[in-house]
Write a structure and sequence with these properties.
about 25% strand; nine-stranded mixed beta sheet; about 350 residues; Rossmann fold; 2 domains
């Protein structure tokens, strides 16, 4: 650990641009980007900007460097679990972009490494950590502002952006499948809103309805969950229309016995401009809640957790639960009706 509470970070894999967000936020929170393994001129340039003294090194060298405290990875999703287990056994804490792991065996290997080493493994669920309306919606549901939560509806539409996608994007063995990948956000929000300890997968479906050139691709998925006295219905897809002026009209709707909460993450269609809209309806009326004064402080909390061995960013138990839930939903998924054929 560095003096003054600072930490040194090694970055492995920037196959998804979320890795740059992770790295930049940690740098803003006072972490030092010490070394990286990344390909592509823009990624290398970004790392040099965040860490002027950072060295481009092999994966093994980054993991084995005794001066590094935390490994950040946004590698190809199917590679993240193995990287995490190796880094944990090398005495590093690890934070991965979602999905942190793509198989149940990989999750078991990480749990074993955490238990043996005492290091921590976190996954970045950006739709909650980076969106203040979603974070506040979950917080208010936890506090009982709308009574007992009985229903959670999560919608995670994304724009396909086919022209800029790497080859691995189309392969569910690389991504873990659509429920493991982007469905992890919805599982995270369901668990946070309900406080459920045990969750059953009532049903799940995945399919390809719009991508005949990539028959293995999963561009739509749905899972119905039950836990904590609530039902969660969640749809994720890559079907956002080109006319939408953002990457997806994400929604989180929480129904309680005494009110409702709705977070409109990116856009309020035909309504107010901007993003991070939060609307609460309770016994006193309808309220728009301004979330924009809240700080996006997950990186500061994560740095403090590495320094102090504390647990303020996100609990290990919660991360395991989200990953286990989406992996089970993906494994049980049936086929979406009327899927396309090549």
């Amino acid at each position: 650990m560095r003096s003054g509470g600072k930490i040194r970070v090694g970055v492995i894999g920037l196959d998804h641009n979320h890795g740059l967000v992770l790295s930049a936020r940690l740098w803003q929170a006072g972490a030092t980007i010490a070394a990286f393994h990344a390909s592509g001129t823009p990624n290398v340039a970004a790392m040099k900007l965040l860490g002027p003294r950072a060295r481009s090194r092999s994966v093994d060298d980054v993991i084995d460097d005794p001066s590094i405290d935390l490994i950040v990875t946004a590698a190809i999703p199917s590679e993240r679990g193995d990287l995490a287990a190796r880094a944990l056994r090398a005495g590093k804490d690890v934070v991965a972009d979602k999905p942190g792991v793509t198989t149940l065996d990989g999750l078991a290997a990480i749990e074993e490494a955490v238990a043996e080493t005492g290091q921590r493994w976190w996954v970045m669920f950006g739709e909650r950590f980076e969106n203040r309306a979603v974070a506040e919606a979950c917080r208010r549901a936890q506090l009982g502002d709308i009574g007992r939560v009985v229903s959670v509806i999560g919608l995670g539409p994304h724009r396909m952006g086919a022209g800029g996608r790497p080859d691995w994007f189309w392969d569910p063995t690389a991504t873990g499948g659509i429920l493991v990948d982007i469905g992890s956000h919805q599982a995270d929000q369901f668990l946070m809103a309900t406080g459920a300890d045990a969750v059953d997968v009532i049903s799940s479906l995945v399919g390809n309805v719009s991508s005949p050139r990539h028959p293995a691709m999963q561009d739509v998925g749905q899972m119905v969950l039950a836990g904590g006295g609530a039902i969660g219905t969640h749809r994720v897809d890559y079907l956002s229309p080109a006319g939408l002026k953002t990457w997806g009209d994400g929604r989180l709707m929480i129904v309680g016995t005494e009110g409702t909460i709705e977070a409109r993450t990116n856009v309020d269609i035909a309504g107010k401009k901007g993003k991070e809209h939060l609307i609460v309806v309770d016994g006193k009326g309808t309220h728009r809640i301004d979330c924009k004064t809240a700080k996006v402080d997950w990186a500061r909390r994560l740095v403090a957790d590495v320094v102090d061995q504390s647990d303020t960013f996100v609990s290990q138990r919660h991360v395991y639960a989200v990953c286990d839930l989406t992996l089970r939903a993906q494994a049980a998924a049936g086929t979406w009706p009327a899927a396309v054929t090549a």
